[in-house]
Every structure is written in C-alpha cells, then in structure tokens.
Design goal:
single chain; alpha/beta; 9-stranded mixed beta sheet
C-alpha cells in the first residue's frame, strides 16, 4: 500500500485518458485509486444537473446549442465521446458512494446569477443524498460559494480566484477566498509560485493546483508542498509519487 502525500484529484475524471466528465472518465480515475473526483455541472431546461464543463455542447459532444436549452432526456441522446452519454450529478454521486471517493463539484454558468442558481441546486442535491459532509462546492463566483454555505454551513467550499492570468498577488488570491468563506483554493498550476503556496499555507487555505499533467509539472507542484493536485492524468501523478 502506497502512502501518498497529496490528495489526488481527477480533474473532470481521468480526462486525459477518457472523454472528460463522463462516467468512463470517472471510472478510470477510480480504478487508479484517486481520492476525489472533480466535475462540473450545468442546469438543464427541466432543472436537472448535467455533468458538463461548457455552457454549450459543441466542444465535447456531437450536439449544438446551450445546455440550459435542452432537457436531460435530450442531452442523454448525445455522444460525449466514445459513445458516452452526458451523466447527471446523481449518477456520479452513486458511483462515488460505491467507490468511497470524495467529490469536488463546480457550479458553472454563464454569469453570476446562473452560477448562484446552479450552486443552490447542487447543494440541494448534496443534501438529498446526504453528501454535504463529503463534497466540496467549487466556483469562480464568490457569491455562489456564499449561497452554498448559507444553505449548508458545514459545507467545504473552494474558490477559483479571478482572474487567473498572473495579475493577482499571493495576498489577493487568499483574500478573495477568505472574503467568501472558502477554505480552499483551486488555481492554474502554471501560476502557482513558491510565494502563492507559502501565502496559502500562512492563511490556512488548502491549495489544489489544477491541470499539471506532465511529470515535471507535477514534480514542481509537489516540491512546493501543495496538499492536493487536480490532474487530467492521475496515472502520471501516481507514477511520479511512486518514484
């Protein structure tokens, strides 16, 4: 049994090995022994939570148009790659329950109001499934996280600070998270410097860099002592950790 020094998070599932945000990607990540699955959700026209990163369908499916303009049944008819359907959040919750892994659920949306609405729906779904103590609500929108914490005060929340273009100071990054009550941060790995990692530790915020997929990039994040890594390639992360 290997002891891993970081939380191993599969970014959109093992999305470097299977179509992102599909049950196949999540199953492959679970088979690799990850600690948590990261996924994105959008609301359908009939109020279901579809596991989908983009607000539109073109990039990852053979469909077209806005997710919110389709019912869940219509979305199920699309191919999200390798004949995979677009899953619903309830399906991923059931998979995670069986596998004993945690979830980081990102409330997407095209604007702040939509993100807040989706966050409300996510927290309601987590409540219904008795999952609020095992999931993390994540968002780029502080108001979405505040709303989630208002619904479930014990819920863990993770902020993706904005903008992620290198313009924020380490203090700016942490202050955004603290201002909305988040206890963790997700940040583009290419922008995670020693100063960013040190400021997060000082402020008591768990930092999970996202999308280091190459061995050298993963090694660089491990050298900074980050407590978690979100990667598209959990197989590569495992190999680096076993070196």
């Amino acid at each position: 049994m290997w002891h891993y020094p970081v939380v191993r998070v599969a970014h959109r599932g093992a999305s470097g090995l299977a179509p992102e945000n599909t049950l196949l990607a999540f199953e492959r990540a679970i088979a690799l022994g990850v600690d948590a699955l990261e996924l994105d959700v959008q609301l359908t026209r009939d109020g279901e939570l579809a596991v989908m990163h983009d607000a539109r369908l073109e990039r990852t499916t053979n469909g077209a148009g806005w997710v919110r303009d389709h019912t869940a049944a219509q979305l199920r008819e699309l191919d999200a790659g390798l004949n995979q359907a677009i899953p619903l959040l309830a399906e991923v919750l059931a998979l995670a329950e069986t596998a004993g892994v945690r979830l980081a659920v990102e409330a997407k949306g095209e604007d702040e109001a939509e993100c807040v609405t989706i966050a409300e729906a996510v927290v309601a779904a987590l409540h219904a499934a008795d999952w609020t103590h095992r999931a993390i609500l994540t968002s780029f929108v502080p108001a979405a996280l505040r709303r989630g914490r208002a619904q479930a005060p014990h819920l863990s929340t993770m902020l993706d600070p904005s903008p992620q273009d290198g313009s924020l100071s380490p203090r700016d990054i942490c202050e955004q998270a603290l201002a909305c009550g988040a206890n963790s941060l997700s940040y583009d790995f290419s922008l995670v410097t020693p100063a960013v990692a040190a400021e997060c530790r000082l402020m008591g915020l768990a930092l999970w860099p996202w999308a280091p997929d190459e061995p050298d990039d993963i090694r660089a994040m491990l050298a900074l002592g980050v407590p978690g890594i979100e990667t598209d390639r959990p197989d590569v992360l495992n190999a680096v950790l076993q070196e």
